[in-house]
Batch of 3 targets.
Target 1
Amino acid sequence: MRTSSVSRQTKETSISVELNLDGNGTSKISTGIGFFDHMLASFAKHGLFDLTIKATGDLHVDDHHLVEDMGIVLGEAFAKALGDKSKIERFGHALIPMDEALSTVAVDISGRGYAVFMAEFHYESIGSYSTRMTRHFVDSFARASGMNLNVRIEGEDDHHMVESMFKALGVAIWMATRKNEKRGIPSTKGTL
């Protein structure tokens, strides 16, 4: 069973994540940032994995520590659930529109965490969520999960841009983590 539980406690945040890669998109998420909760729920729904998140942080300062640490903990949960990464597709991609916005996400579960992120947001925040934190989340998630992520977002409405990106990330990861019994370890090296 491809599941994991990961917790992280610092002076700035307290985060626990439970992940089931073979779920159906059910989520229960509480971070204290309403828009971020909505994005993580979309991520799980379109990635078809079950996700439970309980997180608190120093939101009286801003959302930076919580969003960045969430990327780390969620990335660690994916890495743990994937184990040796055998019998997965490894690569995934998605092109997801939302009204005028379009997000393109490509994923390689290579064991080498790296992120390319291209987007220009128009406002500093959506509710209490800082748009600049989208880049930080993607980068932290990529490094902690050992995934190579390439993200490009176009659009005029920041809400649509960020939401289409989280949906695209979910779909691309679902594609890359799908089981394929013929694959073994999906690498000519014999390891990832």
Note: The first helix runs from residue 34 to 47.
Target 2
Amino acid sequence: MMIINNSKFFWSKIQKNLLFFVLVSLFIGCTKKETLQMDSFRTTSGWGYTIAYKDKILIKQSVIPVITDNKSFESKEDALKVGNLVIQKLNEHSSPTVTKNDLILLKIKF
């Protein structure tokens, strides 16, 4: 006569599935989320900003875009405001182009 212990079989299946779920959760939780990084830098006449992804510079802006003069941002804060706008546009999958209207709304002196 053969007796099968269904309870033991059932618990071993649950343990295997639970272990698999925990390992997958740990793997997903530990993966590094790469984001765009912005930094400001000093120029000879003011400030600029860079935007990088995975330590590779995508954008290096040393002058105020859209204006006819080659003029840097007056302050670090101005450069960072425009850099944040560009990052926001990139995250929305739209063109990172900055317009004069954007500069006016951000109160950037040019």
Note: The chain is about 45% helix and 20% strand.
Target 3
Amino acid sequence: MLRTLTALCVATSGAVHLYLWQDGMRNVDIVGPAFLVNGVGGLLLAVLLLMWTAIWPLLGSIGFGLATFGAFVVATSASGLFGVHSRWQGVPEWTSAITEVAAVLLASAAIWRERPGRL
């Protein structure tokens, strides 16, 4: 169940990034290609979570969530991210932020549940 919820979160974040890439981010240097990689990576990671029972997709989900959410936080700061300044506004932004934090928490819980005493 935790893996399925984690997969749903990373897939949702990936889908949002693909939507935003299609909606204009593809024309932005550096960040545009990163949105495409993030979108495809999120969808592939979701499949791996459901198909492979090893710990690696869970660790990847933690990294994915931290990196993606971290980049958004930096982009909303005064300095921005590679010239892009985002805001904490809009359904795509909040959907991504929530699903990325949830992916980190859910993947961590799945590791704790699947590997008790081995961490």
Note: Residues 2-114 form one domain.
